[in-house]
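A protein record pairs a chain with a discrete description of its three-dimensional fold. The shape at a given residue is found from the number at the same position. Here is what such a record looks like in full:
>
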Amino acid sequence: MTGPAFWVLLGPDGAGKSSVMERLARTLPGWRLVSTDRAFVAPEHALITRLRRDLHDHLLPGLGDAYSADLLAAVLQTAVVHIRDQLRDGDPRQPVLVDSYYYKILAKCRLAGVRDERLYSWWRSFPRPRRVLFLDVSPETAWRRSGEGTRLNALEHDGVPGDRGSFERYQKSLRTMLLEEVREVPVTLLREQPDVDRATAAVLEVLSW
């Protein structure tokens, strides 16, 4: 696969990646930003937006009851392949920043109990980024940003949705898995920032190297 050079913005839940990506879209006119967030999905790819909405509205509330972890992985794979396609089909002269790439989805699938190493091996065969920018956040701050557990889904905790302990355990495990997954690529660890402006500035500083 050929395509442009790309960087990845990664981090635990609540790190502020979505907010930073929205700011960067206004401050990096020469870059292409790739994400499955609605703001970055072209109209011709509306299927991705619908699947993401159905994932949150139907699949996650029924996970472990109406739907299996394997079905979760199958649906999430649409996001992984879409992002890969966006990299493959882009202008090779234009730098790209990708929201999480396949790394976060892989870690969340593992935490959900998906053990399909063939699937993971395929994702890991995708091109490597030039660098991963890891936007860090403490579980305490992430908990506060989640409305103290009122805005969580089944892929953000390992027990009762409103229980802080289950949220913090999950987020610590997620952070460990993310860093393990990117250990073979260059990583810049960006410490927790107090607001989106300073988080955006920290990311811009690395992208300007």
In short: The longest strand covers residues 6-10. The radius of gyration is 16 Å.
